[in-house]
Amino acid sequence: MLASPVCLWGVWACMFVGAASVQAFVAPQPKDLRGNCHQASTASSYGDGAGTIKPLSHSDIEWKLRPPEDTSRLNRLKYKLGANILRWDSKLKGDDLPPVLCPKGGRALLEAYYKEPGRRKKKIARFGFTTSRGPSSTEIDTTIREKYNIDPPALSATIAAIIYMFVEEDYRSRDVGALALEVISAVQSVQGVDFTVLVADDNGSGGLVRWYEEHGYAKAPLLQNILGSPDGVNGVAMIAPVKIEGGFFGRCTVKWW
Question: What is the reported pTM?
């Protein structure tokens, strides 16, 4: 289930490798995004649902992996320069580029771009998540044993988190959220993560929790405190094993900077 973390080269590599921190796995929500992400109580708010509009696929979407939204303009320019230097270095040496390159600091922003026929390409969704291997705990070990019948060595399983998901209203019944879950899981797999965790806040309706369950997640009550939602105050803690299918990045376009 584990994939080896990508090894990066040269002096610029230090910009893209960050140590995990416990704080990264608490469930904070950016205040300007939280309402948009959680006002609706149905799964269609996250890009799925029944309807007559044709669902999108990975072949329709261009995914862009970027530094988190609170990254300064100067640091964004540094990341972009560093990524371009790695590209040039790889091309000169005839080496293959890594499928993804995550910024230092343990967090990343995934954006979805789509071009309607006859229109310009536009951003239709954004998703915040962590990319570092987070620390394990006895609660995580117990959850894995109970949910997946796996008995990992003590404190060996690692987690990363989905912090928020937002899909523009016009695209909320076109499977964008489900596709994003696949991309995030693949990125976290490349980073050597075992499980993805999140807090699903649907104001008690149960719709969003069911949507995540339909996409491979399970409720994880032992993780409520770890994820910053004691007694469900911020939503329901959930967990899923990361996965990546063979040839995934050949079928899915993920650009980094």
Answer: 0.79
